[in-house]
Task: inverse folding
């Protein structure tokens, strides 16, 4: 995908009506600080269009970035804030569930996992939840530049085992620093959205 145009087109709060965009959408989920904003900015070739590291307590929104007037990258609110209250967690869950249930144009869900860390219980829950809603998540192992090349396979194996990925599930390592993995992610998005 050659990025000619990228704009934050729609922001949905907890009670907003979800849009019927009529264009293919791919969504990104992951715990806060995993590198989701950095990935989305990297995919769009923008430095700071997607907000980075939203603070706990800040409004949680689903952000729709329109690319070339032909598709959307959808930034789902991050999870795993230590300070989140059960009520906030419930709101967050309902919002994501509503999106996964109602979007007519959602073609794929990417789940981001920090390549250095064993997936958390929340990550496993998110993976299960995406599956449950009828999508086969594609895993992006973020912050690739933070580990030695010799460690990559071992770290990917830990992720694969902890999430109990099926054999065919893709894991793509990505670095926001070097942009390694970017082309592969776009190729996949292009093929999933029929571009
Ligand atoms: P978000 O909360 O998931 O949106 O995470 P951010 O994109 O804001 O990233 C959290 C922190 O990790 C920031 O300080 C980023 O600069 C850093 N970060 C994100 N991706 C990478 C990466 O691929 N490599 C390195 N070295 N740092 C990264």
Result:
């Amino acid at each position: 995908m050659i990025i000619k145009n990228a704009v934050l087109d729609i922001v949905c709060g907890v009670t907003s009506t979800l849009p019927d965009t009529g264009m293919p959408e791919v969504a990104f989920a992951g715990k806060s600080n995993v590198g989701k904003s950095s990935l989305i900015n990297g995919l769009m070739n923008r430095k700071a269009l997607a907000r980075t590291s939203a603070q706990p307590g800040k409004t949680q929104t689903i952000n729709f970035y329109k690319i070339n007037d032909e598709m959307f990258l959808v930034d789902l609110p991050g999870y795993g804030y230590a300070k989140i209250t059960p009520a906030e967690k419930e709101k967050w869950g309902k919002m994501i569930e509503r999106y996964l249930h109602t979007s007519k144009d959602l073609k794929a869900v990417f789940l981001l996992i920090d390549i250095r860390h064993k997936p958390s219980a929340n990550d496993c829950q998110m993976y299960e939840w995406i599956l449950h809603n009828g999508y086969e998540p594609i895993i992006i192992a973020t912050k690739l530049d933070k580990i030695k090349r010799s460690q990559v396979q071992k770290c990917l194996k830990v992720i694969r085992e902890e999430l109990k990925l099926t054999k065919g599930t893709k894991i793509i390592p990505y670095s926001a620093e070097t942009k390694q993995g970017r082309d592969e992610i776009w190729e996949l998005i292009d093929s999933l959205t029929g571009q």
Q: What stands out?
A: The beta strands are 6-12, 25-30, 62-67, 71-75, 106-114, 138-142, 171-173.
